[in-house]
Amino acid sequence: EDQVTQSPEALRLQEGESSSLNCSYTVSGLRGLFWYRQDPGKGPEFLFTLYSAGEEKEKERLKATLTKKESFLHITAPKPEDSATYLCAVRMFSGGYNKLIFGAGTRLAVHP
Amino acid sequence: NAGVTQTPKFQVLKTGQSMTLQCAQDMNHEYMSWYRQDPGMGLRLIHYSVGAGITDQGEVPNGYNVSRSTTEDFPLRLLSAAPSQTSVYFCASAPGGQAGNTIYFGEGSWLTVV
Question: Mean pLDDT over residues B32-59, rounded?
Answer without folding.
Answer: 91
